[in-house]
Give the backbone structure.
Amino acid sequence: MNTEFQPYYAVIFTSKQSNTLEGYAEMAQQMEQLAKEQPGFLGMDSARNDIGITVSYWDSLDSIQKWKQHSEHLVAQRKGKTHWYSWYNVKICKVEREYEF
Amino acid sequence: MNTEFQPYYAVIFTSKQSNTLEGYAEMAQQMEQLAKEQPGFLGMDSARNDIGITVSYWDSLDSIQKWKQHSEHLVAQRKGKTHWYSWYNVKICKVEREYEF
């Protein structure tokens, strides 16, 4: 076990798409790129079947808050609500332990 | 904002499948069913493309630990390592905040 484990944060974004997906793929790609450029960004994983799950990892709650308020991200969030998603849920989590195979 | 938010726990399971998937689908279904029957289980979401992401939600670290040690789940974990996954990562997280659209 790694006794030097440094807690960090995960944002679990779970979503259901609507039927109006025009512009979605481009925006998703842009937002992924932009997120990667933010201070405190640590990584991101995504998959989608019936529902989509995107988990992004951050060094602090402050970095998450700044990304949430990023002007271009705010535009994307607005379009997400009005166009692309019929439902979504966001969970802010502290990663306390981790192991890998 | 909900001032009565009760923290709970998320297990983020990220995985890459191997090329030997015989028996995987049945076991995945069995494990999902079995997880749902465990004390403290709150919910589960899954999606898979290049990678798979399964997030399960639990009321406490104790419930997560018990599920990890469940005898049938141990068999599944072993088969996962020897057969179905080329890689996986498990993160135990405390859900601190949540919002929905």
Summary: Chain B has a mean pLDDT of 93. The two ends of chain B are 13 Å apart (CA to CA).
